[in-house]
Structure formats: structure tokens, C-alpha cells
Design goal:
Elements: E1 7-11, H1 18-27, E2 35-38, H2 51-60, E3 65-71, H3 75-80, H4 88-105, E4 110-118, E5 124-129
Parallel strand pairs: 1-2, 1-3, 3-4
Antiparallel strand pairs: 4-5
């Protein structure tokens, strides 16, 4: 095929976090052209709906590294995970489920989970989530 990808980066489509996602990606050694982006609403919340796209990035393009990035104040989580209020535990639970699902579908890959904690709409602190 001639095309390869070092990583798959899964992050919410929220435009407020894209600059911080870009900086985190660069901190992880993933410049443009070395990864495939995936932007489902809610990031890990809808990861199973991304299976066909992830198959292409991971199985066909050979990505060995998977990064999943969620963020506080996520509209998808507010709408789909309960009362309309932010729920940190919902993020942690979904990130854990996403990692289990990814490990099952794509064994022998390095998987890293992150939660962006909101400081302002323009500033987000990165928290690595260990499961």
C-alpha cells in the first residue's frame, strides 16, 4: 500500500480543545503526517462507532500507538451520560472501557489515555490516566 501511520489519535471534535490536542500530540512525538486523527463526539464515549475507521488506521496502516483524549466540560458527556452536568467519573469509566475495547480489538499496541482539565476555554491541563 505504501502508506503507514505511527499512531491513531482519538479526541473529541470540540473545537475548544484542538490546539491543546495538537500540542499534546507534538509532546508525544507525533507531528503531522505520522498519525491518523479520529474525532468522534465525546472521544472515548463513542469509540466503538469508530471501528471501521480505526481498523483502517491501526490494522491497514500499521499504527502501533493509540492515544485517547477526553476533556472536561464535554457536551457529548453532558447529553449522553446523565443529568446534563459534568461527571468526571463518567470520563474515567469510559476511558477504561475504551482501553479494554481497544486492547481486545487491537492487541499488542501501546495505548495511552488522557483527560484535558479545563482551566479556561483556551487553556487545558493534561492529565495522563493510568488504568
Amino acid at each position: 500500500m505504501g502508506t503507514s501511520s505511527k499512531a491513531a489519535v482519538i479526541a473529541c471534535l470540540d473545537p475548544r480543545i484542538q490546539e491543546r490536542v495538537r500540542r499534546l500530540r507534538l509532546e508525544l512525538g507525533l507531528p503531522e503526517g505520522t498519525y491518523t486523527p479520529h474525532h468522534p463526539p465525546g472521544g472515548s464515549l463513542n469509540i466503538t462507532s469508530e471501528e471501521r475507521r480505526l481498523d483502517l488506521a491501526i490494522l491497514e496502516l500499521g499504527a502501533r500507538f493509540i492515544v485517547v483524549i477526553d476533556h472536561e466540560d464535554c457536551l457529548a458527556y453532558k447529553r449522553w451520560c446523565g443529568s446534563g452536568k459534568y461527571n468526571r467519573q463518567a470520563h474515567l469509566d469510559n476511558l477504561h472501557r475504551a482501553k479494554v475495547w481497544l486492547e481486545t480489538h487491537y492487541p499488542n499496541r501501546e495505548i495511552q489515555l488522557y483527560l484535558l482539565n479545563k482551566v479556561t476555554d483556551e487553556e487545558w491541563e493534561v492529565e495522563r490516566i493510568e488504568t
